[in-house]
Design a protein that fits this description.
The protein is of the alpha/beta class and about 325 residues long. It has 3 domains: about 120 residues, 3-Layer(aba) Sandwich (Rossmann fold); about 70 residues, no CATH class; about 90 residues, no CATH class. The chain is globular and about 65 Å long. This is ATP-binding cassette domain-containing protein.
Length: about 325
């Protein structure tokens, strides 16, 4: 049974910006880690912000633990947020942590909002959260500017888990860190999932980071999900041309090679002039698209549990085989 359900979610930022998300659907089960991957501007951050209600959705719905979050307004929405069931961990820990507060006060923010704890109980929860993320509680007297980048991201995670959430929504939580700190944060997230049973939605543009952490992965392009399924299957045998392009750009995840370079999966420029009438947003860039792809919206639920928004999903293996043969 799903803990978090996103059904046909759409978000617009006005006429100039247009539609940022359209018809996005995904689910997260208790204790599961779901990755969302896509290039910059694909709608990843908008998705997690809309899930927690920071960005209003203009179509679809978000349901968390039986509560339809997108139907909540005003006092009811504020009451829902106080429960702390979903916690968002931002990419830039320096900007997301109040520079004037101590680490202990930052970790206690959610507990203070929720209420119901004595000062000693709250202090115990703060120390417990800091220890969980591998920090000495003695750091509680310092301010964000007095600790390292890796420590700040751990503080942000401590603040999130202090309220004992059921879902963590992590928006590229390790992308601003050096390689060593990044690996430590990813290992920490995996440990928190196992020890606390918390589900995680992990936003990233780095397929390598996701490959060893997530159970399932969803691929966003132009605000639409083009493919989702078990991470080993999606990365190991892509069923959508855009996923294949991402995989070809990250050979370290061990997928089957698709050609000499990622550029092999890019089409001629004349595809960019195709009319677009609500079909596949990737059609102008797809090496396998036909004119119908630009006007007919694709969606296919496969027998293996993978969802592929591609008119050519059934013949994808043959097409890839022909492409691989022509390029090698």
């Amino acid at each position: 049974m799903s803990l978090l359900e996103v059904d046909g979610l759409g978000v617009s930022y006005g006429r100039r910006s247009g539609r940022v998300l359209s018809g996005v659907s995904l689910s997260v089960r208790p204790g599961e880690v779901v990755g969302v991957v896509g290039e910059t501007g694909s709608g990843k951050t908008t998705l997690v912000r809309a899930v927690v209600g920071l960005v209003p959705a203009d179509e679809g719905r978000v349901t968390f633990d039986g509560t339809e979050v997108t139907a909540l307004r005003g006092r009811r929405l504020r009451a829902f947020r106080r429960t702390g069931g979903m916690q968002l961990v931002f990419q830039d820990s320096l900007r997301s942590l109040d520079p004037d507060l101590t680490v202990a006060a930052i970790v206690a923010e959610g507990l203070t909002v929720a209420g119901g704890l004595t000062r000693s109980e709250q202090a115990e929860r703060v120390d417990e959260a800091l220890i969980r993320v591998g920090l000495d509680p003695a750091l509680g007297t310092r301010r964000p500017g007095q600790v390292s980048g890796g420590q700040r991201q751990r503080v942000a995670l401590a603040r999130a888990i202090a309220v004992r959430p059921k879902v963590l929504l992590c928006d590229e939580p390790a992308s601003a860190l050096d390689a060593s700190s990044r690996n430590q944060v990813l290992l920490l997230l995996d440990r928190l999932r196992r020890e606390l049973g918390v589900a995680i939605v992990m936003i990233s543009h780095d397929l390598t980071s996701l490959a060893g952490l997530v159970d399932r992965v969803a691929v966003l392009f132009g605000g639409r999900l083009v493919e989702q399924g078990p991470v080993g299957e999606v990365f190991g045998d892509p069923a959508h041309p855009y996923t294949a392009l991402l995989v070809a750009s990250a050979p370290s995840i061990g997928a089957r090679p698709l050609g000499r370079s990622a550029a092999s999966l890019r089409p001629a420029r004349d595809r960019e002039s195709w009319p677009h009438g609500g079909g596949c947003r990737y059609a102008p860039l797809c090496p396998f698209a036909t004119a119908d792809c630009a006007v007919e919206p694709p969606r296919e639920e496969r027998a293996d549990g993978r969802t592929v928004a591609c008119h050519h999903a059934e013949t994808w293996s043959d097409l890839v085989g022909q492409t691989r043969g022509a390029l090698t």
